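Below is a typical protein record.
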Amino acid sequence: MKKLLLALSVSALMAGAVQASEWGYADEHGPAHWGSVSATCAQGVNQSPIDIQGDVKADLQDLKLNYSGKVTGLTNNGHTLQAVVEGDNTLTVDGKTFNLLQFHFHTPSENLISGKQYPLEAHFVNSDEKGELAVISVMFDKGVESEFLTSLTQTMPKVGETATLSTPLNVADLLPEYDEYYRFNGSLTTPPCSEGVRWFVLKDVNKLAGSQAEKMMSVMGHNNRPVQAVNARQIVTNN
């Protein structure tokens, strides 16, 4: 029950009072107009995504990930494809334990690394008991086919629907090596663009076939917010 209430409270935080129909990625509902939906999107100084450059080496903790749960479904909420996860999936960092709420995708990537944009980016959204958020970002570059993505998108849900997987997948199987990463303070990349989010962008990348990237983009479109100003933030890395 406690975990359910946490998920509900964080979902409310991420959605704010923002209705899905009030924002999008094109025309009058696009990112340039999100400030009229939530002032933070226009006035925030620690907004995400960013172009990761000028990072500074620091003595960072290892990410303690225990994603031992399963992916049981895939939801199309009209803005992204979002995985339904179950079981014990935790991230421990800064002396806090965060629980994985969901992961979702953006085509092309929202964050850039030294100016490079990837065809796909996955965001693993984690929350602690106070509702503080930590996002792990995984980039996908073109290469060999991803068996995980093939299984996940075998039945592609329509907008507002959830496709249940015939065989659940291991959440951990979508993660590359996570011992090296970039870290910065940021925000949600969608309205209400709430700040105070811990961002961890993994240096190791996954691979997917070009046809897989095209398939996901054909469903989600270009659902990437443009990069935001870094301002006074420092981007740190452990290597």
